[in-house]
Amino acid sequence: MGNTKSSALSKELLEDLKSNTKYSEAELCTWYQSFLKECPSGKISKQQFEGIYASFFPNADPTEYARHVFRSFDTNADGTLDFKEYIVALHLTSGGKTLQKLEWAFALYDVDGNGTISNNEILEIVRSIFNMIPADDQKNLPEDENTPEKRAEKIWQFFGKKENDKISEGEFIQGVMDNKDILR
């Protein structure tokens, strides 16, 4: 009954998701049935996830960013998203608490998963975000953040770090909470 291919959610998973997301039992059951229709194996592959992202950005290339987002939600690092990982991702991106979103954002920027963020990791994520912005829209960005390098440098400077320094999760969360522009 608790296996991911079952047509019904296990009581344990249902209770876990109800207590850790904003979704009701009825919503979770409906989501689960839809999930199984789209993913009969009970898992979303990285390629499927990238395809979903691509459909939201038809005039840009979201592939790199989608890979980073996928990695940040694949909490057991098995190369797929199961229903729990999928629902937690949906919850975080659509209505999670600010602290939860910041913890997720930290995990997104912590590309190598070592518990800190480097200047290069910020640049990698910012580049992947820029790939999703159509070239015409990039021309309208402020002068001090109209390239991935300038935007990454602006973020790095905000945290007051030298080039080879690192940002811890606590510093990241506190820094973002203290700055309305970055929080936005």
Structure description:
By secondary structure, the chain is mainly alpha-helical. Helices cover 60% and strands 7% of the residues. It has 11 helices and 4 strands. It has a two-stranded antiparallel sheet with strand order 1-2. The longest helix has 14 residues, at 25-38. It starts with 10 loop residues before the first helix and ends with a helix. This is S-modulin.
Shape: globular
Q: Indicate the low-confidence ranges by residue numbers.
A: 1-5
Strand content: 5-15%
Question: What level of helicity do the residues show?
Answer: 55-70%
Largest sheet: 2 strands, antiparallel
- Report the total helices: 11
Order of SSEs: HHEHHEHHEHHHEHH
First-residue to last-residue Cα separation: 42 Å
Radius of gyration: 18 Å
Mean of pLDDT: 88
Strands, count: 4
Order of adjacent strands in the largest pleated sheet: 1-2
| Overall SS class | mainly alpha
List the helices and strands and how they pair.
Elements: H1 11-20, H2 25-38, E1 43-45, H3 46-56, H4 63-73, E2 80-82, H5 83-95, H6 98-109, E3 116-118, H7 119-130, H8 135-138, H9 148-158, E4 166-168, H10 169-177, H11 180-183
Antiparallel strand pairs: 1-2, 3-4
